Amino acid sequence: MDTSDVFSGAAGAALRAELASDENVLAVLQVDLSADLHFTKGWLVLTNRRLLDCSGGAATWRSWPLTPGWSLRLFDHAGVGTLELHSAQARVALWRFTQAQHSQALRLLQRFEQQLAGGPAHEVSEAPQCPVCHTPLPPDSEECPACARAQPPQTSTWVLLRLWRFAQPYQGKLIAGFLLTLASTAATLVPPYLTIPLMDDILIPFQNGQAIDPALVMLYLGGLLLAAVFAWGLSWARTYILALVSERIGADLRTTTYEHLLRLSLDYFGGKRTGDLMARIGSETDRINVFLSLHALDFVTDVLMILMTAAILFSINPWLALVTLVPLPFIGWLIHNVRDRLRTGFEKIDRVWSEVTNVLADTIPGIRVVKAFAQERREAQRFRDANLHNLEVNDKLNKTWSLFSPTVSLLTEIGLLVVWACGIWLVARHQITVGVLTAFIAYIGRFYGRLDSMSRIVSVTQKAAAGAKRIFDILDHVSNVPDPAQPVPLQRVQGAIGLHNVGFRYGSRTVIRSLNLDIRPGEMIGLVGHSGSGKSTLVNLICRFYDVSEGSIQVDGVDIRRFAVADFRRHIGLVLQEPFLFFGTIAENIAYGKPEATREEIVAAARAAHAHEFILRLPHGYDSLVGERGQGLSGGERQRISIARALLIDPRILILDEATSAVDTETEKEIQKALDNLVQGRTTIAIAHRLSTLRKADRLVVMDRGEIVEVGPHDELMARQGAYWRLYQAQVRRAEEDAEAAGVVIESSVLHSAHPAGQA
């Protein structure tokens, strides 16, 4: 990084005015992301006295002196770097930047630590250290292996509070549900209170020889019936309202998670299993939904019941109420100790269950390969092993849970026994009546019942917390291909592509380095090179599936990072080596990139892709159903539908990634005719191992180890006898060897047919 860049413009003038005469700049970090991950431009400058910041295009500088006890902390998440300045008490400032600035951040961090330590500001070592654990980083690596292997932080039950963002739109219904819960709980507490006059004013006097007053009995029994009906109606209303709300919260959670997942960049999916993501969006959201609709409501009801019952108990007899609370400290201690075990146990169960779903997600789509290699037993054993592992983990957790729940029940029974003993003693001393003791026992039954219910909710709560953590792991993941804060409108694309000093790394492995290439509008470029030379990576960068680590890629003179991602990709047509078709009709697959297309447009695209004839031979033509991943169609037919799909959106930039490598010669001719229609008038970048398929390319770009080694037309590159010539000669020799081997087979078969057995 040339530090002179920071001294240019208004911000540079302000910085020069800010610096003292004996103040030296030690390190500079270009801050190219805002705090909310939009592209911006700013600077972070370290001098021998302080840290200065100029962000968001402002020309004013903030500064913090180099104070002992302060620290800089560097984090890297999904290609987005974060640098935080902390005082002894709290975080003071935060800066975000792309992966391209990571080496600058490391340099600034080390210089900052050296200045605070009073050390010399010498050049940074060629082997930087991890800012967290201070272990040396591998060469060309931005990730510390030790920190990468560290376990994620444990789940906290407080993660459930983050669900409020999904509950907030329904807060009116939630308040109504809470008030109904409060009223229904109060209604259920009326019957035990009415047992006091029933016992003391009716039953006990009757035993002593007094007559029963029927009107008074009907009054009390009517009160019991009215309280029961009232409690039933309120309970039904609150259950219905809260069930509706929880279902909508669950639906919003699933939708938001899936939409966020679709916005993440490809590198996120590269490190995830399909079954695991399906389990998170499916079973985890269902688990949270059940918790919200049933158990959260039960928990609120239990808390209200305990508080209201405790208030009534203390109003009846404070000393007997205190005896009732004896088991509470022991139950609380049990819940505290078991909760952590349950939480970690359920997290492990979630991970193990994802192993089961991963086996299914691997095997069912690949069932053709499984059967072709007769590996049914092996896959069944994989599933059996994963299922057994899941069983073992559940058994281990159940040992803890099976001990916890009966222990809570035992403590509540002991508490009830103590209350009986104290109550009988108080009755014998005429301090309370039998009616009061009867009501007290009824209330205590509900009190302890709710305690037992709350202890059981601990298990469900930890399950929901573990599920919520896995959901928020997705929602908290930030795409490293962010949309700009103010995207440049993209109306019409000419197709000029410029790559300037492009560099890219997959983690610690450098794939593209210092690459420069200008492609004219309408030009066809052929990318050739050995496997692993960086051809597909370069195409992924042009499509902005990944962002460059260094340099820039421009379309029509504008950096593609300044376009909205969706707007930019609408102008790119992509034909892959293995085309993916969705379950649906032929017409729906062709119109996938343009759902509003008319049937005439779909047929025209299919004709141009030389697919119309074979589509009409299908039982229902364009309305014929395609199986999952295109089952029922040949490779060439799937490829031509893929080409029709690209033709329909009429892209200005076309990417062909080994579009004809997986088909036979006759099918290749048909596909080549379709491609000839597709490339007309478009900027085309084609990748092919068979160099003969690139004979119509305007220029060939030869890549080797992430660099361009040759550029030019076929004849010119052949005349140079360089890298392209060697590739071409190697393919010619391989073709001759294949033809020679085929000739030997033909000759031997002809000889065998000319000499019947026994006459050779």
Residue runs with pLDDT of under 50 for 5 or more positions:
119-155, 744-760
What would you report as the Rg, rounded to the nearest angstrom?
Answer: 36 Å
Anisotropy-based shape: elongated
The structure class reads alpha+beta
Oligomer: single chain
Average pLDDT score: 76
Specify the helix fraction band: 40-55%
Percent of residues in β-strands? 15-25%
Please summarize the sheet with the most strands: 6 strands, mixed
Number of contiguous helices = 23
Q: Strands across the major sheet, in which order?
A: 13-16-17-10-18-19
Distance between the termini: 79 Å
Per DSSP E runs of 2 or more residues, the count of β-strands stands at 19
What do these coordinates show?
With 760 residues, the chain is of the alpha+beta class. It is built from 23 helices and 19 strands. A hairpin with a 7-residue loop joins strand 3 (50-54) and strand 4. Helix 11 runs parallel beside helix 14 (434-475). The longest helix is centred in the middle third of the chain and has 53 residues, at 376-428. It is elongated. It starts with 8 loop residues before the first helix and ends in a 6-residue tail after the last helix.
